[in-house]
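Tip: read the tokens left to right.
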């Protein structure tokens, strides 16, 4: 794993550079996107680069990691809405080539079709990840099997509590379930970026980078991937011993 530690502002710029390089080499790349607070600076940077003509998403296909069960794309806390607002509406991507798991049709067939669609697109070239305070990636909570593909999950209390900050009605409004790419779906990506910012992520980043590979810390599986770049700000890196 390549680990880059810098200011919050700089890691967004450095990660954006990785997108410039990839899209220059492969304009029709398949990108895996994440939601949450962490990628916001990166998305703002990518929007800026696209507006200035440094990158184009014209031929890109996008797959998002996850979606809340019960929220459709018009709900302002759905991840489809988040992606439209923070990235897709501001770049030249073809929306027909942007995929987010359905939070409405959660039938086994619809869920399984997500992995098939990724495969049919040629697999994910670059998957972006944030990390939960409990080590989740996507919504793969602790003890999710490493062999998992896209599936429905029950969210832990700690994840619902962390995400309740964004719901006007607090934790009672946070859905109890989500559909997420599995750990294996993520690991199938050719390259992965994980971003972590802020002091709340410091304890888990120590476990992810310095602890054992264990299903109890889903992100620790990244130690086994051949092409991972971790971008952390100084606060998220504060507990690393090396
Ligand atoms: C979002 C996702 C989650 C978040 C994680 C961190 O699509 O899959 O794993 O990346 O919960 O969220 P933030 O960035 O809000 O701290």
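Filled-in amino acids:
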């Amino acid at each position: 794993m390549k680990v880059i530690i810098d200011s919050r502002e700089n890691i967004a710029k450095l990660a954006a550079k990785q997108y410039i390089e990839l899209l220059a080499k492969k304009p029709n790349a398949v990108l895996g996107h994440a939601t949450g607070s962490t990628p916001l600076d990166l998305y703002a940077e990518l929007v800026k680069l696209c507006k200035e003509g440094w990158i184009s998403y014209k031929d890109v296909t996008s797959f998002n990691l996850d979606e809340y069960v019960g929220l459709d794309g018009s709900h302002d806390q759905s991840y489809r809405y988040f992606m439209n607002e923070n990235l897709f509406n501001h770049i030249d991507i073809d929306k027909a080539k942007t995929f987010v798991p359905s939070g409405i049709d959660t039938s086994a067939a619809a869920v399984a079709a997500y992995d098939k669609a990724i495969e049919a697109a040629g697999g994910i070239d670059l998957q972006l990840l944030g990390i939960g305070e409990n080590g989740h990636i996507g919504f793969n909570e602790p003890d999710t099997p490493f062999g998992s593909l896209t599936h429905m999950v029950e969210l832990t209390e700690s994840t619902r509590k962390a995400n309740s900050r964004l719901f006007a009605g607090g934790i009672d409004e946070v859905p109890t379930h989500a559909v997420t790419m599995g750990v294996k779906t993520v690991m199938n990506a050719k390259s992965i970026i994980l971003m972590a910012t802020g002091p709340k992520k410091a304890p888990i980043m120590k476990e992810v980078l310095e602890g054992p590979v264990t299903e109890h810390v889903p992100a620790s599986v990244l130690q086994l991937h051949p092409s991972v770049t971790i971008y952390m700000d100084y606060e998220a890196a504060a507990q690393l011993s090396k």
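The mean pLDDT is 97. The CA atoms of residues 32 and 127 lie 4 Å apart.
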